[in-house]
Amino acid sequence: MEALSITEANRRGISGLVRSAEAGPSVSLSRQGRIVAEIVSAQEIESLRKDRDDLADSLLALSRFITDTGKRTELDDAIADLGFNRTELEAELNLETALEKPGDSI
Predict the structure, then answer these.
(1) In which domain of life is the source organism classified (predicted)?
(2) What is the full DSSP assignment across 51-72?
(3) Domain ranges of the chain
(4) CA angle (3 as vertex; 42, 50 as ends), nearest 5
(5) Distance of CA 101 to CAs 40, 92, 95, 96, 98, Å?
(6) How far apart are CA 2 and CA 28, in angstroms?
């Protein structure tokens, strides 16, 4: 990681900063000795975004695993709990499908 003061970064110019960011993981910019910004390559940002998305997916899977009681519900039971039955739903679906014209979309 390269570290530059804002003054040094200004002297180098935007093209020089971009070249440095592309070549290495990042360029840190500091003001009064404190890092206030970092310039990173598009490749590094893409990698960080992928890692973030993978972490979010892993966290979701882990939370589902931890809270899973093992109880499963049969589809017909869920349909009945909603006040329907499978035969009526299938008949309604078949009727809607038969009435659809080619090219129509719902």
Answers:
(1) Bacteria
(2) HHHHHHHHHHHHHHHHH-----
(3) 2-41, 71-99
(4) 25
(5) 53, 16, 12, 10, 8
(6) 6
Q: CA 81 from chain center: how many Å?
A: 34
If pLDDT is split at 50, 70 and 90, which confidence band does 7 have? very high
- For residue 78, give the amino acid letter: A
Give the homologous superfamily in CATH for domain 2-41. YefM-like domain (3.40.1620.10)
Single-letter amino acid code for the residue at 87 = T
Say what the pLDDT of residue 25 is. Answer: 81
Measuring CA to CA, which residue among 7, 1, 6, 34 is closest to residue 20? 1
